[in-house]
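User: Hey, my collaborator sent me this sequence without any context and asked if I could get a structure. I don't really work with proteins. Can you help?
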Amino acid sequence: MEIGKDQFKKTFPYLAKEMSDDQRGVRIDSIRADTKTAEKAATPTKSLSNYDPDVIDFLRRCDNTQQAEEIINYMQNRGEITNDYAKKLRLQLKKKGLRSFGPKKEEGYYFNQYG
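Assistant: No problem. I've predicted the 3D structure and written it out in structure-token form, which is a compact way to encode the shape of the chain:
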């Protein structure tokens, strides 16, 4: 089914306006290949009680790719991430860089966010 531009505007006025705005866009700070991890990270928490950092949290504390590789290896060897997920993380690290996992979490990050 094909719909003309005018009919689209009549049928979906707000969507048409959003699509025509020059200021559309969403900033993406990180990429998470694992759906469960992404959902967990996207769910806001009010406090740090029962908070369990994941591999992405640890990667975001790294200063360089060597440290990131060590984190991935450690988590993989402990069985905290699967071999497949570790492989995806390494590929992302190689192709997109360390900051593709998100901006660096500096010392005191959690106190500043939730303190």
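In plain terms: The helical segments are 5-11, 13-20, 35-42, 55-59, 65-77, 83-96, 109-114. You can pass these tokens on to your collaborator as they are.
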